[in-house]
Amino acid sequence: MSNLADEQYGPDPSSLPVTDDPNLRFAARDGRLVRLLSQLPAFRSTLKTPEPREIAIAYVASLVIEAVAVWARFAVDSYLPAGFPYLTFFPAVILTGFVFGMLPAILNACISAFVAWYFFIPPIESFGLNAQSFTALAFFFLVIAIDLGLLRLLLSAYAEQQRAKEDLTRHLQMQQLISDEVDHRLKNLLATTSGLITLSQRYATTPQELGTQLRKRIQAMGHSISLLRGSLSGETTSMRDTILSAVEPLGLTSGDRLSLEGPTLKLNASSIISLSLILHELGTNAFKYGALAQERGSIKVSWEFCEAPKQADREERWLQLIWEEQGATGVEAPTRSGFGTDLVRRLATGFGAPCTLDYRPEGLRAVFPMRRDSVLA
C-alpha cells in the first residue's frame, strides 16, 4: 500500500513516467498544485483545526502583509492620479485570504478600509463621510466580499475533494484489510473449529447436546464471516445485535460474562463490518490473554454520545464505544504490535479518530471514538 502522502494527495509527479500523453501531464501538474496548496495554512485549516501557535503566526504574518501594503501605498501615492485609494490593498487582502484564511483577510480588509478612508479618500486625514467617501468604501467592501466569497468556494471545494480522497483511501484500505482478514480466518478455520469442539465437549452431557452446541457455534461463525465478506451489504442492524453477532462465535452471550449498555442505534453496512472485525479480535484476545482467560473474568461493552476529540471538527457529532475487561490478572501491554492490534487500530481510524488501548492489570480498556455519520444508518 502506498504511503499516506501518496494516498492523500496522489503520487509524486516526479515518479510518473515520461510520456506524451496529455492526460498524464495534466495529472502530474494537478498533483503538484494540490501538494503546493496543501502547504498553505488557509487550505490546511479546512481539514484540521489549527493549533493556537499556528493561528498566532497567521495573524502576525497577515499584519506584516498589511503593513507592506500600507507602506507601498504611501510610496506610490505621488505617482498616482486621484481615484486609486485601494491600489495596494486589494492584492494584500486577497493574498492574505489565499495563504492564511478568511478571518485574517477580513481583518486586513477592515484595516485597509480605515487607512484608505483616512489618508487617501477626501476629505484627507479625516473620517468624514460624504457621498464620495461612502461610495468609495462601499465599492471596496463589495469587491472584497466578492473576492473572499470566491475564495471561500475554492477552500470548500478543496476540502470536499480531500475528504473524498480520504474516504476513497479508507475504502481501499478496508478492502485490503478484509482480504487479509479473510485469508487470516480461513487459515485458522480448522483450528478454531477444533477449539469449538473441545469447548463443547467440556460442557455437553450427551451426543445430541454436543451436536446442537457445535451446530449453533459453527452457524454463528459462518454469519460472522458473511458480515466480513459484505454479503449483508445494504442492510442495517443495531449496535447491540452487531456486538452479539461478533462475539457469539466465541461462545459469548449477554449475561454474567458479557454486559451491554447503551442507547438503541442503527448502524450502516460498512460500520457493521468494521465493528464486527474489531470486536471479534478483542474477544479472541480476551479469551487468550485477558479477562475471559480467568474463570471470574467479564467484559462490559458500552456506547454513548460524546464530545468531539481534540483534533476533530467541533461541529461534527460523535459517539464512543468502550470495551472494558474486568477480572484478569497481570495483563501487560504487548512488546510489539501484531496483526490483531494493527487490524484494530487501522479499522478504528475509519470511524474518524484513532482508538485508545489501555492495558491495565485487570484487563484491557479500549475506547473507540466514532463520527456519528460514519457509523449510523
From TrEMBL:
<protein>
    <recommendedName>
        <fullName>histidine kinase</fullName>
        <ecNumber>2.7.13.3</ecNumber>
    </recommendedName>
</protein>
<keyword id="KW-0902">Two-component regulatory system</keyword>
<dbReference type="Pfam" id="PF07536">
    <property type="entry name" value="HWE_HK"/>
</dbReference>
<feature type="transmembrane region" description="Helical">
    <location>
        <begin position="55"/>
        <end position="76"/>
    </location>
</feature>
<dbReference type="InterPro" id="IPR036890">
    <property type="entry name" value="HATPase_C_sf"/>
</dbReference>
<keyword id="KW-0597">Phosphoprotein</keyword>
<dbReference type="InterPro" id="IPR025201">
    <property type="entry name" value="KdpD_TM"/>
</dbReference>
<dbReference type="GO" id="GO:0005524">
    <property type="term" value="F:ATP binding"/>
</dbReference>
<feature type="transmembrane region" description="Helical">
    <location>
        <begin position="133"/>
        <end position="155"/>
    </location>
</feature>
<dbReference type="GO" id="GO:0016020">
    <property type="term" value="C:membrane"/>
</dbReference>
<keyword id="KW-0812">Transmembrane</keyword>
<keyword id="KW-0547">Nucleotide-binding</keyword>
<keyword id="KW-1133">Transmembrane helix</keyword>
<feature type="transmembrane region" description="Helical">
    <location>
        <begin position="88"/>
        <end position="121"/>
    </location>
</feature>
<keyword id="KW-0067">ATP-binding</keyword>
<dbReference type="InterPro" id="IPR038318">
    <property type="entry name" value="KdpD_sf"/>
</dbReference>
<keyword id="KW-0472">Membrane</keyword>
<dbReference type="InterPro" id="IPR011102">
    <property type="entry name" value="Sig_transdc_His_kinase_HWE"/>
</dbReference>
<feature type="domain" description="Signal transduction histidine kinase HWE region">
    <location>
        <begin position="181"/>
        <end position="264"/>
    </location>
</feature>
<dbReference type="GO" id="GO:0000160">
    <property type="term" value="P:phosphorelay signal transduction system"/>
</dbReference>
<feature type="region of interest" description="Disordered">
    <location>
        <begin position="1"/>
        <end position="20"/>
    </location>
</feature>
<dbReference type="GO" id="GO:0004673">
    <property type="term" value="F:protein histidine kinase activity"/>
</dbReference>
<keyword id="KW-0808">Transferase</keyword>
<dbReference type="Pfam" id="PF13493">
    <property type="entry name" value="DUF4118"/>
</dbReference>
<keyword id="KW-0418">Kinase</keyword>
